[in-house]
Amino acid sequence: MNPQDTFEYDPQILARISSLKLQAMGLVEGILTGHHRSHHKGSSVEFAEYKDYTPGDEIRHIDWKVVGKTDKYHVKQFEQTTNLKCTILFDASGSMGYVSSHDRGLSKIDYARTLVAALSFLLLKQFDAVGLTLFNDKVVSHIPPRSKPSHFQHLLHGLASVEPGGVTRIQDVIGGLVERLPGRSMLILVSDLLTREKTLEHTLRLLRSRELEVILFQVLHPDEVSLPFAGDIVFESLEDDPSVGLDPLDVREEYRGEIQRQIAHYRIICESLGINYVFLETSTPLEQGLSYFLLKRKSQVKQ
Amino acid sequence: MSLQFLSPIYLLGLLAAGIPVLIHLLTRRQQKHIRFSAVYLLSQSRQRSIRRSTPNRLLLLLLRCLAILCFSLALAHPIFSFTGPQSLLPESPSATVFILDDSFSMSAATKTGGSLFHSAAEKFGTLAKSIRKETSYAVVSGSAEARVWKGWADSGESVGKLISGSVASFQTTSMGRAIAEAVHLLDETSQPEKRIVIFTDLQKNGWTQGDLPEFSSGDSYKIQIVDFSALQAQPNRAAIESVSVDQEFLTNTRIVRVRAETRNLSKTQPLAQLAVSLWTHDKKLSEGMIDLPSQTLVARDFSFPQPGGEPVEGYVEIQEDGLMPDNRRYFTFQPDQTIKVLVVDGDPKTVEHQSESFYVERALNPFSVALSNIEPTVSTLNELPQRTIMDYSVVILCNVRELPLGFEIELERYVLHGGALLVALGDQVDPKYYNEKLGSLLPVTLETILTVPPDQDAFHFALEESGHRALNVFTGQPLLEMRDIQFHSIYDVKPREDAASSIPMRFSNGSPALVESDLGKGKILLFTSSLDRDWNNFPIQPTFLPWLQRWVKYSAHSLESLSHQDLLVSQPLKRWQEGLPGTTLFVQMPGGKIVRPPQSTDEILFRDTTHPGVYRVYQMAKEENPGAQEPVETVVPALPEGTELAGTFTVNVDTGESDPEKIPLAEIQKLLGNLDVELIPVDELDKSTAPQEGFPFTTPLLLLVSGFLFWEGFLVRRE
Prior knowledge:
- The structure holds two protein chains of two kinds.
- Chain A is of the alpha/beta class.
- Chain A is built from nine helices and ten strands.
- Chain A has two domains: 246 residues, 3-Layer(aba) Sandwich (Rossmann fold), CATH 3.40.50.410; 36 residues, no CATH class.
- In chain A, helix 3 packs antiparallel against helix 4.
- The two termini of chain A are 41 Å apart.
- In chain B, the strands form eight sheets. Chain B has a seven-stranded mixed β-sheet, sandwiched between helices.
């Protein structure tokens, strides 16, 4: 049995799951009102089982051969497959665990969790297969893509049990993962992209070369963008950087310029590679992020 | 090698170095720790803005502190020299006796508020700390006592505490005795180098040849005198030399008169409007101003009524000058004491009124009750050896032929101790005996009897209005009456060449009627006629009574009663009346301390007169256990019951010590013969090896300050 199928009944994780589920479903239902149909039509029709005809079933699914033999109406049921497999890469490195001391809004990890949960729910609702891979400097856990509605529980559990830690090494992880990813599938990368690595461009290029459709969500806390601290502060790294003691006032301008440069850099790379890049601050409402994603998707499908 | 500071007060500024530290601590922000995600970005940012490096606050703090420290040190004028402090302490092992002058002239105030003695003690304290182990030293006080504070063997620590805790005494300087003591101490040691270091104000008083030891040519004591007189804030300008108290007698007002004699000690400067005040029982009674020309003694009289007749104690004070102890002089006075008079009748008769003493006794106590405060006792010559004349204030010899054998010696001792002797002549008197045996008592020799024939005019008093205290009441009618008294016979007297006397009354022929002379503390009066009616009609005149009473009281006033033992500091209290041995006495000292003097049969009753002031003597009314007194002086917490005030006496400072004149080095050198004497003014000692020989550190320190400030400014600007 797949170990992913068994949940650890940790009350904390369960509580997290339920709230994630509610939030994700709430978000998706709200956005998808009037867009119930999947844009991905299943091309594979694999017989699964017979079921007694009940009024309302499609008449064209009645197996007439069986009617002829048994004089009973049976409806053929098929296991629906989808042509989209989506893998969500979730950054579980230490830097994602940043919790602001003065901001009581969603923390970065919670924001990212809710985002991923909502995306998964949305995709599953469209019968797409969704997988989840948690990583820091290596793959922490991997849930392969499935399209069963019950798969959502697995994803939620996977999300809820994320404990941020370790160093971010996107290149290593994706380098090891890219071979296993199904071709022409979709990859959603959720990360703060706070890493010393300079090779993200190379990694993204590699993904694109595999004809993967990539969506990049960069999630940052407003503190990380604006550095609003004051006083004599020792900044201790959530990853493995050495601590830095300084007065933020002295470096604030420099820092802000640096982070904006980095964001602009990622945006340009993604644009050039045809990757959807979405920058989200945790202060941005999640609906906004999701709507943006759907809008992008819709426009791409139309193309 | 030494470092000294010319203005050490500025060293207090070193404390200001704490101010930057305080500011640093107060303004130091609390360091916070925050767990942050993009620390690598922060490091990058910091590296990029490295030009604005965070200021090294600790370095700034250090620079500021150093600047303040150097500035304070620079203000204190440090002088660095390679030679050690003054050569009071030689490098080689030696024996040194320090003489600390603790006479009362050393209690003069210094410019810094302490006393000269305090400065000397302080100087000694610092010196004692740096005395080497090989150097043995002793300490002797320079006042009259020449007390050894520390012998060779005593520990230095205790003597340091003793000296720093003590104050100048009220005694006079006795440098001779102190040096003699020092020489005595030095003779005990075997150290090759022997030195005497004297801390003094060079007060001239006390440098007397008599007390100094004999120095032989082989003596090689090195004497160094440290002169502290330069520290004195202001010179001693005036001193009260004496205070005398007497009473206006034979008046009903009972006025007590206090006469204070004040001397201007300055040779050049007159003192104008010097305040003199009289205090009794700690209350200011009156105050007056006197003008004192330089080097003169001016008397100021105060009078105040004392109707109750209770004893008076108080002091006269002049306004402050450089030296306090001689600005105040204490006095006590017992008004209207009963005067016991012994009348020796040289010609007793069986008929009372024919006796020589009849009129005298009546005149002294006219109503047989002690109204006049005079208590006469008549004695014949035969009874005289049984009498103790010391119990009487006045002895009157009336027409005495000659005294019992050896009695004249006793009489002389009595007068020397303050007794008064009134000698009246008559037909019984043997002039040869008087001239030979009483030569030391009487200032005149008896010559012949001058007798007026009956048909001629008798002798009279040639009396004018007189300022004499015994005679100043005789003015107007009484004076005329006095002039009418007829004297038929008088003795002609001739003054002795070697005796001083005064003649307050004369007869009309020019012969002395009354001859007054002083002997020791006592007084002798000689009346050249008789005190009965044999030679004159004086005894039946109304003026006889006041005349005789006034002379008796006048002469008795100089009697040594307890309150007339006006002692100087350290003079012992002597027995003031007979019959004291065996009685328990208590002396209450000016501070309130009560002491029971040891019982002794000596003349001296009490020695502990170290402080000026009024001392009260109490004695047991009833001796319960005579002879049980302890042989040593004991301090009593409170007066026991059954004691009564026997009297008071005063102790005052010796104004010989007040003289501001200093003894010059040449004179000291003359006194000390061929010894090596060096005089070091105290400020020279402070400067040790003269500052010009040292290297002043002020400028380098100021340069350092500017360097630190420049560096600090550079760091702040870079920030």
